[in-house]
Amino acid sequence: MVSNSTNKSVWVLSGLGAVVVILLVLTLILFKFETVHGNQIGVLETWSGGVDQNPYPSRTYFLFPGFTQTMFTYPLSIQVFVMNDKSEGQGEIAEGREQDAYLVQSSEGQDMHISLNVQWRIDPAKVVEIHKTVREHITEKMLRPVVMRVVKDRATSRNAIEAYSGKGLVELQRDIFKDLTDPNGELRQRGIIVENFVIEGIRLDPKYIGEITERQVATQRKLKADEQTKAAQAEALRAEAEAQADLKRRVVEAERDKQVGILNAEKEARQKILSAEAAKQQVVLAAEANQQKLVLDATGTRDAKLLEAQGILAVGQAEAEAQKLKLSAYAVAGPDAFVKIEIAKAFAMAHQNVKGYLPMDMNIFTLGKNFSEAINKVMNGNAPLPNPAETGSPTAPQ
């Protein structure tokens, strides 16, 4: 009895275990969990619907039935693609080929081994298209061909000495990067975004490098000579500019002194003119004052003379008036007797101081036969009174 019970228990446990295993197998077949990590994006493929057109962002997805669905993930982080001569231990681990620096020829036919480095990433908006067309080995199928074509197009249009270093190398790198990042270019249209492009170096034939070095040394010497020449020319121009500035300063100072002299001369001339005008005005004023004085003196003399003449005239008029009145008083019978008496007085007065001897032939009756006749002649104007000087008679001694 015990053995039979034991056997039943074993069979029951075995059956339960088998059921559990079957359930687990069915669960694994029917259910699937897929995780898209943070730096990835997913693309889902199903048996019935094919590739889902919508990309799946980072998270964990429950798929049922799991055996009919598959999640493919693609990295969204920046990836590095290289073409150089370095081994894997000499630099950053990246997709690419060792001993695979890109060999192109310059415009003059020189071999150029170009080592390059491309940083790129997948465009999440076009990951479904990449999954449909490429899926694997994206760098070999999509990136490498385009990079090689662009580098070749740009490098072969330059000569080696230009592309080897310096400004030419910078321009070559800039032009290649511009083509790789063109929004309308092949890579961007297919879902590859180039973040950066660097030419690590260009390896040339050592003999040609020697020639380039010699040319660069000659170029540097020429540039140095040019710079020295420019410096000398600049120094000469500076000296010339200083000389010109000094000359202009001297000219300005001379012109200023000239103008100051002219102004001073004009000032002195104006002062002399003003002094002359003042002296002239003083002379004019003095002359006018003298003239006015003379006029006043002449006017005073004239007025005095006029007054004197008027006085004399008045005296004469008064005397004449008095004489007239006197004569009027004699305007009666016998006026001639009065006149005769006056003439006789005058005649007597005229000869009262005559001393000496009268002319021998002169007597009282010289003027007439008698005294009365002489008086009458004087009155009538028939015979002027005799002048003792004309008779030639000597005068009495004094």
Automatic annotation (TrEMBL):
Extract one GO cellular component term from the record: membrane
Q: Which Gene Ontology biological process is one annotated for this entry? A: proteolysis
In which domain of life is the source organism classified?
Bacteria
GO MF entries: peptidase activity
Enumerate the transmembrane spans: 12-31
Q: Does the keyword Metal-binding apply?
A: no
Membrane topology per record: Single-pass membrane protein
Q: Which InterPro entries does the record match to this protein?
A: Band_7, Band_7/SPFH_dom_sf, Prohibitin
Xref: SUPFAM superfamilies: Band 7/SPFH domain
**Coiled-coil stretches noted in the UniProt entry, renumbered to this chain:** 224-282
Which subcellular locations apply to this protein?
A: Membrane
Keywords from the named record: Coiled coil, Hydrolase, Membrane, Protease, Transmembrane, Transmembrane helix
User: Principal localization?
Assistant: membrane
Domain Band intervals: 35-238
Lineage, highest ranks first: Bacteria, Pseudomonadati, Pseudomonadota, Gammaproteobacteria, Thiotrichales
Protein name per UniProt:
Membrane protease subunit, stomatin/prohibitin
Question: What organism is the protein native to?
Answer: Thioploca ingrica
A Pfam match is Band_7
